[in-house]
Amino acid sequence: MLDALLRNLLVQHVHCLNRKGNAIDAVNFNLSLASFRPNLIGVVNLINFTHNATQSPHIFFISSTSSTMGHHAETGLTAEELITTIISAPNGYANSKYLAEHLLAHAAKQCPLHVSFACVGQIAGPAQSRVDFLAEVLADLALSKHKAANDSVNVFHPVNLHPLAWEAIRPIHIQKDIEMAGASGEILHDEELQALVARNPAVRPLGFFEEMMSQATRVNVLDTQLTAQRSEKLQAVEAIKPEWIEKWVGEWVP
C-alpha cells in the first residue's frame, strides 16, 4: 500500500508512524545501546525503502537533543549541522540517536537522499497544547522544500527561542512545592519514596538530571537560527511564564 502511494504522482505527503511495540518505552535512559539495535535496523530499512522509491521522498527523522551531549565547542554553541564527536553521550538512548543521525547523513551523501532530522528535547508544560504546538513546528520543518547543499542533511533544533535560566525558574518551583506539601512536609522512607516514583513517572529521570547538573564542563547551547527561519510557528512561541510553571507542577506533583 505504501509503495502504491509513493508511485502516485498526486500524493504529495505520506506520514509514516511506527507503532510496533511501545515507542514511548524506548525512551528509557537506563537501556544499553545494544537495546536499540531494532530501532537502528528500522532506520536502515527506511533508508533502503526511500532509496528504492520512485518519488524520492523526504526522510524527516525525530532525533533528540541528547545526541549532542558528547559535543563541546569552544564557542559554546552547537551548530545546526551533523555533529561528530569521539566522546560518547551519557546513555544508550542518546548514543542510538547519534548513530541514527550518522546513518542518515551517510545515506544522504551516498544515494543521495533528501534527509532532515530534528533534535527534540523534553516536551514539558501544562496541558496537551505544548505537545500540539511542537507538532505544528515539526510539520513546518518537515514540509519545507529547502534541501541542504552538498548532499548533506538538514538539522533542526526546535527549542524555545527565549530560554530562561534555572535560577529564574527555581524560586517559582520551590514555592509551589512548599504550598502543595504544606508547612509540615513529610520525610519519606525508602519504601514510600519508591511508591511515589511508581505513581509519578516525572521523578524517574531525576538521577539523569542530577548528573547533568554536576558536570564541571558547561553544556553547549543549541543554535536555532536556521530552525527559526524555517518555522513561523516556532517564532510565535513565547518564553516560559511563571503561571505555566505553577500549573505544570500542580499537575504532576501528587
Largest sheet: 3 strands, parallel
CATH second-level architecture of the largest domain: 3-Layer(aba) Sandwich
Average pLDDT rating:
80
Walk across the major sheet and give the strand order: 1-3-4
In terms of structural class, how would the helical and strand content be classed?
A: mainly alpha
Q: Looking at the structure, what is the overall shape?
A: globular
Residues in β-strands, percent = 5-15%
Tell me what you see in this structure:
The protein is 43% helix and 7% strand. By secondary structure, it is mainly α. It starts with a helix and ends with a helix. Helix 2 (37-52) packs parallel to helix 3 and helix 5 (166-181) crosses helix 10.
Features:
single chain; Rossmann fold; 10 helices; two-stranded parallel ribbon; 254 residues; FAR_NAD-bd; mainly alpha; 7% strand
SSE layout and pairings?
Elements: H1 2-7, H2 37-52, E1 59-64, E2 77-78, H3 92-110, E3 115-120, H4 129-142, E4 154-156, H5 166-181, H6 190-199, H7 206-213, E5 221-222, H8 225-230, H9 232-235, H10 242-252
Parallel strand pairs: 1-3, 2-5, 3-4
Helix pairs in contact: 2-3, 5-10
Protein name: Thioester reductase (TE) domain-containing protein
Domain Thioester reductase (TE): 27-124
Pfam families: NAD_binding_4
Task: Give the gist of this structure.
This protein is mainly α and 254 residues long.
